[in-house]
Amino acid sequence: VIRTVATRSALLCIDAAGRIRARSADAHELLFLGQHQRIGSLAWAAADLSALPAPVAERARQLLGDAAAPARDEITLRDDGGGMRYRIERLIHAGADAAELVLTLCHLEPIDLAVARQLTRWPLTPRERQLAVASAGSASQRDMAEALGCSIGTLKGYMRSLYAKLGVASREALIERLLGAAAR
């Protein structure tokens, strides 16, 4: 399983007929990423639920049509490039005859790619950059050492040096520190 981190999100407002009435700034791009269509397909640009991947569109229809269904749901669709998370929430306005939906689209990026994007902000050597990316993407020290072409002992020495330079004590703290730069 590829570890991911949420990088961007957008909102859609969907009326009772399934039409997209409003969308936030990044919504078009995230709809495109979520559809995984071949170049030339415009399904993601539709003005209704057909802009969404089929399982998400179907669940949205259920939430619009069934007042007894839960008021919210979440669907995550993963792929080799990370994936998308869709949070669907039914809104019922006082005095309104029908429900509306707010759908949050969230892009999930592989964590090693997200770390690699942040490395330009840090004064690290090329080897330290390799260590940081390998730390995010590799499950074990053995995998990291193999990917970097060094022994586990050498890897441990490199990692201690990197941890000291960035003021952290573990791989998780290293990743958190590097990704925390994106939030600033």
Task: Give a short overview.
The protein is of the alpha+beta class. It is built from seven helices and five strands.
Task: Name its key features.
single chain; 184 residues; alpha+beta; five-stranded antiparallel sheet; 24% strand
Sequence-ordered SSE layout with sheet pairings:
Blueprint: E1 4-14, E2 20-23, H1 27-35, H2 54-65, E3 72-79, E4 82-91, E5 100-110, H3 111-118, H4 126-137, H5 141-148, H6 152-166, H7 171-183
Antiparallel strand pairs: 1-2, 1-5, 3-4, 4-5
Helix pairs in contact: 3-4, 4-5, 5-6
Q: Please give the largest β-sheet.
A: 5 strands, antiparallel
- Would you list the SSEs in sequence order as H and E? EEHHEEEHHHHH
Give me the secondary-structure category: alpha+beta
The number of helical elements comes to 7
Principal-axes shape call = elongated
Beta fraction: 15-25%
Outline the structure in words.
With 184 residues, this protein is α+β, with helices and mostly antiparallel strands. The chain is built from seven helices and five strands; from the N terminus they run ββααβββααααα. The model has no long low-confidence stretch (mean pLDDT 87).
